[in-house]
Amino acid sequence: MTRREMMKIAATTALASTVASAYDEKLIVNKEKMTPKDPKNMTKAELKHTPEITLGSKDAAGYTLVEVSVGQGGIIHPSTDNHWIYEIILFADGKQVDSVALEPTVSRGYLGTRVKLDGVKEVSAIAKCNLHGDWTSTKALNV
Question: In CATH, what number is assigned to the domain containing residue 122?
Answer without folding.
Answer: 2.60.40.730
